[in-house]
């Protein structure tokens, strides 16, 4: 029997609630398959800071180093609460970016996929949604403005200034392009390249390297779109997109817009792939306003588990079963308050019930051979 060790970093806000539902799925998957999971919980985020003085404690680093994969919940506090933590130890800067850097998770995959049973929840009109929304954003995750040199000071005129640099070398671009092109080969063989080469030199190099790498994938059709135009087209006609590739900052913004066209960031799981280790996380924040009420939908966390099963453990069929199980719960008309419009006729359930229903649906599916 194969045994995998998985680090569970529940995080802040709604993190522990939705993590509990992901754990139910792990338990059932190991029961159904010839596999066992060693689930190891560790502190991470603002909670870890208040408990042990650091948002990414040494003990957590050791647990993550030993794990085969990491499942990470959302982190962070409300704007007001954040001020109680020194700037460099706030969980985004003090924990999340160091996690990405530690495992060099350069490729971030963010599916923007609207479950059929939730079409009414999207703010887009049915005629815009058409056959559905099912695209995936590939975001470079360890370069660009996020990780460039930073300088803050007072200039010769006595004015406060800041300088942040956007840097990429060709190798960083090449490796993300390979990921995106390989994904396009497994899907519809169309890749939308998102750039801003009419202004940014970084995009000029980005596009040059893409053209070189694309020669190895002659079957993939490349379509170039400026990032601002892409933002508009995501609203007007999302069905034209399948795989989209972009640098770090563009990916941060456009992937939230992806959540917007679905109706909620609660529908956004993700995978962050490094050369040796990958971690998985919802793309949304910790939603402190609804924390502790058992009303957050665990879709993004369970979806992250599905992505882990496929990408870290090669369990492609079981991963699809998990997706289907979640979709079936929506298709039966159930939803949680955070994923329901006021006045709609959904059958309202709580976080834990949603998780239980996903588990029941998965249990009813044939076990992959
Ligand atoms: C995301 C988040 C992070 C980012 C924050 C929490 C630092 O918004 O994963 O998209 O900007 O990358
Ligand atoms: Mg973001």
Automatic annotation (TrEMBL):
Catalytic activity: (2R,3S)-3-isopropylmalate + NAD(+) = 4-methyl-2-oxopentanoate + CO2 + NADH
Limits of the Isopropylmalate dehydrogenase-like domain: 5-358
Details of cofactor binding: Binds 1 Mg(2+) or Mn(2+) ion per subunit.
Signal peptide: none
Protein family: Belongs to the isocitrate and isopropylmalate dehydrogenases family. LeuB type 1 subfamily.
Subunit note: Homodimer.
Protein name, UniProt field: 3-isopropylmalate dehydrogenase
């Amino acid at each position: 029997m194969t045994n995998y060790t998985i680090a569970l970093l529940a995080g802040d806000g709604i993190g522990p609630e939705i993590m509990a539902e992901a754990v139910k799925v792990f338990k059932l998957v190991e029961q159904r398959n010839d596999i066992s999971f060693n689930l190891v919980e560790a502190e991470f985020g603002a909670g870890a800071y208040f408990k042990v003085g650091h948002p990414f404690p040494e003990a957590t680093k050791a647990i993550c180093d030993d794990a085969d994969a990491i499942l990470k919940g959302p982190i962070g506090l409300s704007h007001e609460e954040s001020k109680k933590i020194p700037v460099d130890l706030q969980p985004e800067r003090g924990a999340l970016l160091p996690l990405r850097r530690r495992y060099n998770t350069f490729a971030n995959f963010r599916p923007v996929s609207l479950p059929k049973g939730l079409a009414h929840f999207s703010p887009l009109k049915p005629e815009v949604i058409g056959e559905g929304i099912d695209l995936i954003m590939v975001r470079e995750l360890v370069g660009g403005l996020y990780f460039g040199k930073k300088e803050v000071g007072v200039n010769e005129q006595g004015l406060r200034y800041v300088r942040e640099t956007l840097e990429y070398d060709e190798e960083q671009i090449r490796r993300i392009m390979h990921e995106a092109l390989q994904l396009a080969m497994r899907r519809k063989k169309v890749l939308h390249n998102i750039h801003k080469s009419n202004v940014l030199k970084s995009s000029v190099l980005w596009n040059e390297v893409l053209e070189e790498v694309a020669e190895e994938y002659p079957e993939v059709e490349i379509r170039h779109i400026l990032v601002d135009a892409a933002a508009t087209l995501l609203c007007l006609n999302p069905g034209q997109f399948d795989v989209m590739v972009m640098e770090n900052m563009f990916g941060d913004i456009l992937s939230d817009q992806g959540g917007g066209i679905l109706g909620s960031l609660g529908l956004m799981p993700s995978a962050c792939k490094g050369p040796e280790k990958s971690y998985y996380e919802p793309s949304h924040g910790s939603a402190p306003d609804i924390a502790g009420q058992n009303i957050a939908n665990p879709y993004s966390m369970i979806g992250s588990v599905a992505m882990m099963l496929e990408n870290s453990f090669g369990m492609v069929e079981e991963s699809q079963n998990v997706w289907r199980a979640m979709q079936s719960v929506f298709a039966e008309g159930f939803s949680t308050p955070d994923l329901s419009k006021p006045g709609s006729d959904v059958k309202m359930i709580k976080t834990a019930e949603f998780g239980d229903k996903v588990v029941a649906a998965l249990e009813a599916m044939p076990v992959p051979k």
